[in-house]
Amino acid sequence: MRATVVRRTALAAAAASLTLLATACSGSDSDAKGDGGTSGATSGAKDDASTKPSAVKALSSAELEKVSLEQGDVAGHKVTKTGPEDIAKPDEVTVDKKECEPIGFAFYGVERGSPVGNAGRKAVQEPKKDESADPEDLLAGMLDVTSSLVTLASYDGDGAEKSLAELRDSAAKCATGGFTLSVKGSKQKVTKLTEEKVTGGEEALAWRVQMGEGDEAAPFKLVTLRQGGTVATFFSFNLGKTGADADFALPTALIDAQVKKLG
Questions:
Q1: How many C-alpha atoms does 1 have within 13 Å on its Cβ side?
Q2: For residue 197, what is the DSSP state?
Q3: Which helix (H) or strand (E) holds 74?
Q4: How far is residue 230 CA from its own chain's centroid?
Q5: Per DSSP, what are the bridge partners of residue 210?
Q6: What is the pLDDT along the chain (263 residues), one digit of tens a residue?
Q7: Using alpha carbons only, what angle is made at residue 232 by residues 189 and 224, rounded to the nearest 5 degrees?
């Protein structure tokens, strides 16, 4: 892998994932709690009157912590709590097109709507170890890991449904033509949004997000799902994947584990 590509990808990933890259490299196990970016889960009501949006009662942040992913929930992943530096605040993210604001905010865990509770996690895939590999392959293996910012947002009534509907509409309007967002002063150009298939919860949406173009392009994955009044969002990147044609798998192990805890 060319050093220039690695550097370009690192810059894109650092801007897009805030401190996830540092976590992946350092193995930090910080358990500081976020100060209001990620949001939470609602009790997943089933086939009775409580499933109606008007009857949905949101969970508090403390209740959301109990249904958030923890270390040991997902094999082959290191899971830690988010800290204040991991979640962007609304005034730290700007999007040049108003209609693209919802999906741009979703990348960085920015609070949308009026969630009652919130919680967040960082999940980093453990690198594959092959002591017999040559140095170049060993480096590629160390970089080929997926890191994810997982946020939960809890809404009363039909707030969760509205959150997904807003995101679906925003993605449809911004899928082509792209948009530019600025995160804490660092600008990123989203050049393409491609919808992907995903399952989980009562409804789920997923996209491949391309930032940059050509050799400087880097793919990211955005998944959002609803279970009752809970919206769970996963924003992922893989440092070993670069270029406009690069891709990596959705974090299905994380999704399945989170849905199970929300159920």
A1: 24
A2: -
A3: none
A4: 15
A5: 192, 219
A6: 444 444 444 444 444 443 443 333 333 333 433 333 333 333 333 334 334 445 788 999 999 999 999 999 999 999 999 998 899 999 999 999 999 999 999 999 999 999 999 999 999 999 877 666 666 666 666 788 999 999 999 999 999 999 999 999 999 999 988 999 999 889 999 999 999 999 999 999 999 999 998 888 999 999 999 999 999 999 999 989 999 999 999 999 999 999 999 98
A7: 45
- Cβ-count burial 116-150 (b if 16+ within 10 Å, e if not): bbbbbbbbbbeeeeeeeeeeeebeeeebbbbbbbb
Q: Tell me, yes or no, if the pTM score tops 0.85.
A: no
| DSSP per-residue codes, 200-215 | -SSEEEEEEEEESSGG
Residue-wise DSSP of 110-175: ---S--SEEEEEEEEEPPP--TTS-HHHHHHHHH--EEEEEEEEE-STTHHHHHHHHHHHHHHHHS
Stated as kind and residue range, the H or E segment containing 223 is strand 218-227
Q: How far apart are CA 21 and CA 239, in angstroms?
A: 8
Contact 140, 26 (CB under 8 A): no
Give the DSSP H or E segment for 3.
helix 3-17
- The CA radius of gyration of the chain, in Å to the nearest whole number, is 18
